[in-house]
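Deviations from the work plan: none for this task. Representative record:
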Amino acid sequence: MIGSIIFCLLLVGASAFFYTNAKKIRRNILIGKDTQLYDQPELRLKTMVLVALGQSKMLTRPVSAFMHILVYVGFVLINVEVLEMFVDGIFGLHRAFHFLGGFYNFLIGFFEILASGVFIGVVVFWLRRNVVKVKRFLNAELNGWPRMDANLILVTEMVLMTCLMLMNAADQNLQLRGNEHYHVAGSFPVSHLFVNSLSGLSDGTLIFIERFCWWLHIVGIFAFLNYLPYSKHLHILLAFPNTYYSNLKAKGQFSNLDSVTDVVAPNFDPAYQAKTDPNHPQRFGVKDVHDLNWKNLLDAYSCTECGRCTSSCPQNITGKKLSPRKIMMDTRDRLVEVGKVMDANKGVWVDDGKSLLGDYISKEEIWACNTCNACVQECPINIDPLAIIIEMRRYLVMEESQSPAELTAMFSNIENNAAPWQFSQADRANWIKED
Amino acid sequence: MSEMLAAGETPEVLFWVGCSGSFDDRAKKITKAIVRILNHVNIKFAILGSEEGCTGDPAKRGGNEFLFQMQAMQNITVMNGYGVKKIVTGCPHCFNTLKNEYPSLGGNYEVIHHTQLVQQLLDEGKLKVQGGEFKGKKIVFHDPCYLGRANDVYEAPREVIKKLDVELHEMKRSRAKGLCCGAGGAQLFKEAEKGNKEVHVERAEEALESKPDVIAVACPFCNTMMSDGVKHFNQEDKTKVLDVAELIVKANDL
């Protein structure tokens, strides 16, 4: 009875806390400007099913793809067992779904196999980060909290899976002994292997182990849920909306700024109707998170810092400071900071004198980009770091007139003679006469 | 274009030469190769000549959206004035910009890259090719970012190269995983940021790994960068950097 009350309190508390944080994240994402990503719902759904649910873009790196699918399938399906644990917790029952009979036994056995898969997966992931030291997990932007965050997630998952196995092993001993509360239910293909190692323990100790693991598992899940909003692990939820709102156009197509068209087009067409509201002039390009659109911000919250983008970036490969992953991490960090300022001022933004470009992302990073789309191609959940980089270049050029000198020269060549070099436009067809 | 119009003729296609193709000595050879192919199959084509201006790609990638849209609208005014319907480009950057970024500014054309045109001509039987001097030679193809990832055109240049009876070798980083030559994003026009290597050296090193006879490219920028990279390793006597159009022309004496 007391157990049920504690469980219900935990359930309500954990849900409420998660709800509060989720609402904050939603608010922060909607700080961004609107962008039209609402067309072609069928294609969007298909993209989400393929890329998020089906993890199609993971396949280019088979080892991590296989381990990831083990963890992912295990995580999703074991939630059915968690549902049972909820029912058990609320009503003080034991294995409430056992009335399913043979099917229940199959499920529990299947979950044990899945849990083993999860365990193996996270151990391999942990080894890749900490022992094998895969290159993309060594970049400077992961120093400190991000690296700790990754390891915390992996260790938590190991603990959760160990609890599940240990709980089942204790449960089997109690079932074998005919303990009244522990009626015979389930099949245990994996934990069966170490049933004997617990067989010397008293009923009391076994019940303690079983209960302790059960509680640790369930509390662990509540804690994990509430850890997500603070962690890169949020991708397990946001991968779905993020792929739904994927860019469906050719990757080479950059947006044409309407605010610029409004200035340029009247020179060519006197009857041109402005697309933007002249009474609310907007900044050209992006200086801070407020200038980004909500998809850029959703991208930032969805990033799980896997670093496939950075490991395929030609500039990063050749030792430059630019790292697409860092662009996403900085964007999220700045957005969280902006959110905190708003929290401290009753939800209203008060300028804190900082900005994403300058305080987080440097010009050196922005100007190094080849716009080659390797980062965009690599991202397993269709995050677009390039969109943010280009918007920052636009800000630097059009608001601050701060392009590298060679680019300024290239711009004036185009302006003066319609080519990036100093050749006369009148000579464009001279090649015909040359041999 | 203006001459054709004056003579009362309508070209089938506008050949967009591009700035590199017009002014860069190496790229002019690619321009001429494309012209030889067009002439060989008797396609009635035109160029804009002195009425062509930079598409605005380097301005746009460099963050100068004003300059890009000025260029775009200038070019659109000229092309719409001539009633242009179909464009073939010698450069993936021009191709991408004309195809994807001009429509919402009022320029709607069917735009293809020259490797796509050559593939079509081969498929339709209008162009017949032999391996010639390249028969049995080892060729690696370097994907231009703005043809490959940017527009998902990976097969056209490969299909064309395969027709030459060559050994087409793939680099480890090819197609969607292809590594940039280092020129895109307006980088061609500036010094690289501080690092430990130039991108074109990294890419040339990879391309030279299999000791190919030819590094085939399909972009004048890639051509510049890969040529520099090959020179960096002093391999210019053993490995040539050639555009797909040049391969066709050289192999068949067009």
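The mean pLDDT of chain A is 95.
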